[in-house]
């Protein structure tokens, strides 16, 4: 009696392993449900795989030859995995190494770090170093997670992706997702790597230094590409650095402009003065004009924060100290001043009356 498995593959009962393999490839290609050919036939495809599972294994083949299907039924999961492994190899040979492309899609996680800098540092730009702990690819197993050998993932049969049927308002839809067990690799460790415990990744402490550019605003994010967690497929995530700029007691920042208040004495307000200002952008000598008024704003062009559109301005608001206690000499001065002012005013009033 011709044995069904040999018939399915179209080989004779004394076919060599090579012949069996070749025949299987041809048939698998023909009936593969993904092959987009008219001959695609999932049911037939499964049967062919089953036949190949048995005939490609000399042990099973012997049992099958002697006892037929009963002899090989209930084959161990190990057997199934091995068959799947063969299938995967052949699948790749036939349909190309599409798996590599998918691997590139999964990437490591983005790490987020925060730092706070002073307004001066934001003005100048500053280099900051950070101690971070990140996942990197295990050097022992090169990310495979295996101590020695890998075997085909039994979750996805080595394809690295799994199909799921989902109910949607438009009916049942089949979606393809990355296999959660092997993370798209199609292979899982036979024995977990002793260095990384099979994860394929290890924690590594690293010191990174970042040049924070001049003019950075508080809350601005910097993306350091590829500096985040590694992924087993080799594409690293990023580091996202959030830079906070400390609020300064004396200088308020609005966009690229800086605002500050300068306290001056009443004498300097009346007579004018040269005053020094210590700003984040440097130390400047400011000319307070004669007769300066409280609340008056002096604008120092280009002395604000750097920005893409050039430097902002430094706005200096004058605050005039009115003395609470005055000595006798001062009293005389103010009395004289007051009298003159009154005289002037009455003169103007008189003139006005004439007009
Ligand atoms: Zn490892
Ligand atoms: Zn898998």
Characteristic key phrases:
3-stranded mixed beta sheet; binds zinc ion; 10 helices; 32% helix; 355 residues; alpha+beta
Task: Give an overview in words.
The chain is of the alpha+beta class. 32% of the residues lie in helices and 29% in strands. The relative contact order is 0.10. Bound molecules: zinc ion (2 copies). One zinc ion binds at residues 153, 155-156, 160, 179, 181-182, 186.
Q: Averaged pLDDT, please?
A: 84
Assembly context of the chains: single chain
Which range best describes the helical content: under 10%, 10-25%, 25-40%, 40-55%, 55-70% or over 70%?
25-40%
What general outline do the C-alpha atoms trace? rod-shaped
Q: How much of the residues is beta strand, in percent?
A: 25-35%
Which sequence of SSEs, written as H and E, runs from N to C? HHHHHHHEHEEEEEEEEEEHEEEEH
- Main structural class: alpha+beta
Radius of gyration, rounded?
41 Å
